[in-house]
C-alpha cells in the first residue's frame, strides 16, 4: 500500500479536503465520492495523479478511476484522511441529494434492470444461436438448416429453449423480485407475485389471439369474472404490480403490530396485489405496453422510418449518459413480445460500435500517449463488446469531439439499419457480437450499417482533430502526436 500514500494524499487535497467529503466507498475499479461541493474538486489536478486513470460524475457521485488495485488505494486513502467508508448503497443514497427528480427516477429504473442484464444478454445469445441452428439455410447442406440435417444439433436447439424460455417468458418474476430488492421490502413476496403473473394455470400471453376469439378460462366470482391470462415477457405490468406490492407492504407495516406482522403483512400485501394485478394493472399495463411498442414500431416502420432511425441512432449515446437508455430495455422486450422481433435493438448495438470506433480514432491520433492508452484501449474493447460507459466517461465526453463523431456515425448507421428493416430476434450482446442476435435475413444490412458505425466515427475524429476542432482543455494540456505534418 505504500506506493499509494502520496497519490492518496494528493487526491484528498484535490477533492477539497476531508471536510468536503460527505461519503466515500469503492467498487471494482473506482473510488466513489459524494462531495458537499462538487465544484471544489480540481479534475485536472486529480487526473494528473499517476494512479488515476480518469474521472466522471454519475448519479450524484464523483467517481475516480483507479483500476484493479482500488481496494489498496482506498485503504491508504482511508488511513490518511481518517474517513470511514460506507457501503455502495449508502453512497448512492447520499449521492441522491445531488440529483434532480428525473435523475432519481432513472437511477431507480437502472437499479431495477441492472441485475437482470446478465440473464437478458445470455438469453439473447441463446436465442441468436438457436436462430442460426434452426433458421439459416446453408448451401453446403443442400439448402437445409442445421437442425434439419443433424439430430445432435436438433437436440441442442431444443434443449437451449429451456433456459431461453426461462429468461424471457418468465421475465416478470425477475422484474418483481428486482423491484422489491431495490425498494428494500420482502423479496420472496416479489418472486411469488411474479410467478402469479406467469403461472402455468394461466393462458400464455403469446396466445392472445385465441383468447380474444373466445377460448378463455376465467375465475368466476358469481357477479363478475376475470380472464385467466398470463403476462409472459410483459415488462410494464410486472413493474406496476411490483411497485404496488412494495408500497402496500410499507403502508401495512406502519399500522400492523410487529407481533403479528409476520402473518398479516404478507397476507394483506400479496393477495390484494395479485388480485389487482390481474383485474386492473395487468390489462391496463399490458395495453399501455402495446400502445408504447406500437408507437415505436410506427416510427420504425413508417414512411419516414429512416428519420426515426437517424434521430434515435444519434441520441442513444446521450441517453446512456442520462440513464434514460435503461427504458429501451422495456421497449425492446415489449416489441419482441408483440412483434416477435425488434428493429430498435440493432441500433443500440450500432451506437456501441460507433462510440468504440471514436475511441479507436483517438488511439490512432494519440498513439504514443501511454497513460491515455491505459484508458482508451480497454474502453474501446469494452465498447466493441457492448459496454460503452468506459468509452463515454473515460475518453469521448472528456474530449467532446469523439463523442460527437460517435453520435454522427451512429445516426447514419441507425438510419441505414432502419431503412433496410434490420431486426434482431431479441436483445443480445451489444457491439460487434450483436450480429449473433440478428435475424439471418438481415445479416447483409447489419454488416453495411456496422461498416458505417466503424468507419464514419474513426474518420471524423481524424478530420476534427486535424482541423483543430478541439476543446480548450486539450489545446492547453494534452500533448497530441500528429499524423503527417
What can you see in these coordinates?
The protein has 485 residues and is mostly helical. Helix content is 64%, strand content 6%. It contains 21 helices and six strands. It has helices at residues 5-14, 43-47, 70-81, 88-95, 101-113, 117-135, 146-149, 151-168, 171-183, 187-198, 208-212, 236-253, 258-301, 305-322, 327-339, 344-365, 370-384, 389-399, 401-419, 443-466, 472-477, and strands spanning 21-26, 30-35, 54-58, 61-65, 218-220, 225-227. A four-stranded antiparallel beta sheet has the order 1-2-4-3, sandwiched between helices. The chain has a two-stranded antiparallel sheet with strand order 5-6. Strand 1 and strand 2 form a beta hairpin. Helix 9 (171-183) runs antiparallel to helix 10. The chain is globular, with a radius of gyration of 25 Å. It starts with a helix and ends in an 8-residue tail after the last helix. The model is unreliable at 471-485 (pLDDT under 50).
What is the strand and helix layout of this fold?
Blueprint: H1 5-14, E1 21-26, E2 30-35, H2 43-47, E3 54-58, E4 61-65, H3 70-81, H4 88-95, H5 101-113, H6 117-135, H7 146-149, H8 151-168, H9 171-183, H10 187-198, H11 208-212, E5 218-220, E6 225-227, H12 236-253, H13 258-301, H14 305-322, H15 327-339, H16 344-365, H17 370-384, H18 389-399, H19 401-419, H20 443-466, H21 472-477
Helix pairs in contact: 1-3, 5-9, 6-8, 9-10, 9-12, 10-12, 10-13, 12-13, 13-14, 13-15, 14-16, 14-19, 16-17, 16-18, 16-19, 16-20, 17-18, 18-19, 19-20
Amino acid at each position: 500500500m505504500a506506493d499509494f500514500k502520496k497519490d492518496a494524499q494528493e487526491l484528498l487535497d484535490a477533492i477539497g479536503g476531508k471536510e468536503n467529503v460527505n461519503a466515500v466507498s469503492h467498487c471494482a475499479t473506482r473510488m466513489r465520492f459524494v462531495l458537499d461541493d462538487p465544484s471544489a474538486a480540481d479534475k485536472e489536478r486529480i487526473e494528473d495523479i499517476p494512479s488515476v486513470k480518469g474521472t466522471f460524475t454519475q448519479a450524484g457521485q464523483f467517481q475516480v478511476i483507479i483500476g484493479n488495485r482500488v481496494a489498496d488505494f482506498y485503504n491508504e486513502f482511508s488511513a490518511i484522511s481518517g474517513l470511514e467508508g460506507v457501503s455502495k448503497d449508502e453512497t448512492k443514497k447520499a449521492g441522491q441529494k445531488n440529483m434532480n427528480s428525473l435523475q432519481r427516477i432513472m437511477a431507480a429504473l437502472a437499479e431495477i434492470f441492472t441485475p437482470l442484464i446478465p440473464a437478458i444478454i445470455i438469453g439473447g445469445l441463446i436465442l441468436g444461436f438457436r436462430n442460426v441452428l434452426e433458421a439459416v439455410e446453408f448451401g453446403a447442406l443442400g439448402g437445409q438448416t442445421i437442425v434439419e440435417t443433424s439430430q445432435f444439433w436438433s437436440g441442442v436447439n431444443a434443449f437451449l429453449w429451456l433456459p431461453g424460455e426461462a429468461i424471457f417468458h418468465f421475465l416478470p418474476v425477475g422484474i418483481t423480485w428486482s423491484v422489491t430488492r431495490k425498494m428494500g421490502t420482502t423479496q420472496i413476496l416479489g418472486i411469488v407475485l411474479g410467478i402469479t403473473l406467469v403461472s402455468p394455470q394461466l393462458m400464455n400471453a403469446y396466445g392472445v389471439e385465441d383468447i380474444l376469439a373466445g377460448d378463455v378460462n376465467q375465475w368466476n366470482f358469481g357477479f363478475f369474472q376475470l380472464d385467466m391470462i398470463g403476462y409472459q415477457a410483459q415488462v410494464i405490468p410486472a413493474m406496476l404490480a411490483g411497485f404496488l406490492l412494495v408500497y402496500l407492504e410499507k403502508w401495512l407495516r406502519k399500522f400492523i403490530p410487529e407481533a403479528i406482522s409476520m402473518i398479516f403483512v404478507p397476507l394483506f400485501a400479496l393477495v390484494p396485489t395479485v388480485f389487482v394485478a390481474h383485474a386492473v394493472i395487468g390489462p391496463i399495463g399490458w395495453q399501455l405496453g402495446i400502445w408504447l411498442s406500437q408507437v415505436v414500431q410506427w416510427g420504425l416502420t413508417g414512411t419516414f422510418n429512416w428519420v426515426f432511425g437517424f434521430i434515435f441512432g444519434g441520441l442513444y449515446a446521450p441517453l446512456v449518459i442520462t440513464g434514460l437508455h435503461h427504458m429501451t430495455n422495456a421497449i425492446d422486450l415489449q416489441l419482441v413480445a408483440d412483434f416477435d422481433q425488434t428493429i430498435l435493438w440493432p441500433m443500440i448495438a450500432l451506437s456501441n460500435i460507433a462510440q468504440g470506433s471514436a475511441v479507436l480514432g483517438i488511439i490512432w491520433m494519440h498513439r504514443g500517449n501511454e497513460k491515455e492508452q491505459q484508458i482508451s484501449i480497454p474502453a474501446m474493447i469494452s465498447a466493441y463488446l457492448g459496454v460503452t460507459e468506459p468509452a463515454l466517461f473515460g475518453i469521448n465526453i472528456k474530449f467532446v469531439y469523439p463523442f460527437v463523431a460517435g453520435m454522427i456515425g451512429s445516426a447514419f448507421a441507425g438510419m441505414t439499419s432502419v431503412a433496410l428493416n434490420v431486426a434482431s430476434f431479441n436483445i443480445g450482446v451489444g457491439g460487434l457480437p450483436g450480429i449473433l442476435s440478428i435475424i439471418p435475413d438481415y445479416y447483409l444490412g447489419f454488416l453495411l450499417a456496422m461498416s458505417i458505425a466503424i468507419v464514419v466515427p474513426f474518420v471524423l475524429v481524424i478530420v476534427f482533430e486535424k482541423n483543430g476542432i478541439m476543446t480548450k482543455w486539450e489545446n492547453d494540456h494534452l500533448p497530441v502526436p500528429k499524423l503527417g505534418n
